[in-house]
Amino acid sequence: MTEQQPPEEQAAPRPAAHRGPPIEVAEEVLDSRGEHTAGALRLALRDMALESGGRDDVPWVRIGREHLIRAVESCVRSPNLRMDMLHCLFAVDYEERIELNYVLFSLGNGHKSLLKVDVPPDDARVDSLTGVWEAAGWYERETHDLFGVEFDGNPDMSPLILYEGFEGYPGLRSFPLHDYEEW
Amino acid sequence: MTAEQTYDTVDMMLNMGPQHPATHGVFRMVLTIDGERVVDVTPHIGYLHRGSEKLAENESYGQVVTLFDRLDYVANLNNELIFCRAAERLMGIEPPERGQYIRVILAELNRLASHLLFIGTYAIDLGAMTPIMYGFRERERIQNMFESVTGARMMHNFIRIGGVKEDVPADFVPRVRALLDDVERGVHECDRLLTFNEVFLARTRGVGVIDVPTALSCGLTGPSLRASGMAYDVRKDYPYEVYPYLSYKVPVGENGDCWDRYYMRVLECYESLSMVRQCLDQMEEGPVMAQMRRIARPPKGEVYVHGENPRGDIGVFLVSDGTDKPYRVKVRPPSFCNLVSLRPMMRDAYIADAVAILGSLDIVLGEVDR
User: Fold this and answer.
1) Are strands A150-152 and A125-127 parallel, antiparallel or unpaired?
2) B129: domain CATH number?
3) Torsion of CA B15, B16, B17, B22, to 10 degrees
4) ∠ CA A154-A158-A161, rounded to 5°
5) Residue B118 domain boundaries
6) Which residues in chain B touch residue A163, judged by CB atoms under 8 angstroms apart?
7) H/E element holding B189?
8) Which residues of chain B register pLDDT less than 50?
9) Å between B356 CA and nearest CA of chain A
């Protein structure tokens, strides 16, 4: 009489084959300066933050797109933060979502931070920050050129770095590097 | 009926560029003019857009360095440095000390070359023909030095992830010392020739003034922001590489006009000279490249790194998905943001000063359009 061996546990189905060495994930650790900023950010955005993290001295906070203007204004007004410069604004295409990153700097208080806003690719639309910083206008036009994100309230959304009549959004991952129709 | 009631005045549109020698590349601006005053200015960029950020997503990390060479093509080494720093942060490696010293020496020499080019071209923008001869002569010496170290005059690809490509030649230190003496004499000559020249002062004093709040709102950085009176220098405020071991001053202006923006760069030349000298004194023998895999493969994650370029605060956002190609590279080009402040600077300026104001921002179109 032989006892039936229990079947060996099936390994979880492996995701699509990734060739090459296994993928490592970087640790995200804030230094003391970053912790200080992160604390002030938590206080300023306590009812809006969805997720947070950061590396070195740049903490990031993810917020809902409906809160963008309110979040930015509270970052500007908060006496601990006083974010006085929009250092950069750019999009990252993760295919299922487009992540907008607002890099806010406070030159006076020495803070650096990232505000992240996710928008779905089929409804990529967010409020414009042209009312807060003059620099936002060009960044928004550039992001619109390359990623097709609409910024409600920007008075001038004409193409900035692409020519008028360019079809498609070349920043997206789905846009081919070569072999696209040119005039 | 008075004249005002009878005749309606219409603002005139004047197109300047893209093929204009004073726009420093392919840059176009449409000036709206009321008589001799500029009412508004609309800059048009994008003539040099090469899609560097998109290209970078399809190159390996080592190859992206060569794309960064071509962004700000008069300060190549500073650009290479910022990308390598971003990749190193993500991989958690620290280049050896000698490598860092070589990087800072090259970056500061490149800053000198870039500022000397600015002094020359700015003088030519204002109609002074001579300073460009002096500026270019000194820049040429620095370019020759780069050629002997990196093998190329402009597109070096010398700063690599983890250090520098190879150690400097054996006679590097005495040759750089001799070079610094020559360049210092040249900078001093340009300075004496131009800075307090009465015609030059008349063309630049009180022209294109920008105050600190407007400058910050526009994202102005670098010498142009310091000219307005804000002492913000990434090397000082967020030190990187071996900058904390060096002692130097950050020149700060008062008025934020064209002359201040010019003079900040002249003063920075002297500071850079002293920084390179200190580096040469402190540098010790040792390895120049960190131990790492031949093919850089940063772990999955993202990082935002910024540093001080000759034109301002350059930022790089790097997203890695764990493979040998970056998932996304975003450059925050200083010239791009400095151009945003062109509009407030030009408002109510004289049309003759338009070139003086644009020139004082020291833009490089390769970086603006990417």
Assistant:
1) parallel
2) 1.10.645.10
3) 180
4) 115
5) 9-369
6) 46
7) helix B172-194
8) none
9) 22
Please tell me if residue A24 touches chain B, with a CB cutoff of 8 Å. yes
Count how many pairs of residues, chain A against chain B, have C-beta atoms within 8 Å. Answer: 111
Per CB-CB distance under 8 Å, the chain A contacts of B228 are none
pLDDT in tens, A93-128: 888 889 999 999 988 888 888 999 999 988 888 988
Of the candidates B336, B338, B341, B297, the one whose C-alpha atom is nearest the C-alpha of residue B320 is B297
For residue B28 the two structure tokens come to: 């176009």
Residues of chain A with Cβ-Cβ distance to B58 below 8 Å are: 177
CB atoms within 10 A of CB A147: 21
CB contacts, 8 Å: B306 with chain A: 87
Would you call A161 an interface residue with chain B, using a CB distance cutoff of 8 Å?
A: yes
Strands in A111-119's sheet, in edge-to-edge order, are A49-55, A58-63, A111-119, A98-106, A85-93
What type of residue is B332? R
User: Which domains does chain A show, CATH number per domain?
Assistant: 32-128 (3.30.460.80)
**What was the ipTM of the complex prediction?**
0.84
Q: Give SS3 for A143.
A: helix
**Domains of chain B: total:** 1
User: Strand locations in chain B, DSSP E?
Assistant: 12-16, 28-34, 37-44, 159-160, 163-164, 301-309, 312-320, 326-332
**How would you class B369 by CB atoms within 10 Å of its CB: exposed for 0-12, middle for 13-18, buried for 19 or more?**
buried
| Partner B contacted by A163 (CB < 8 A) | yes
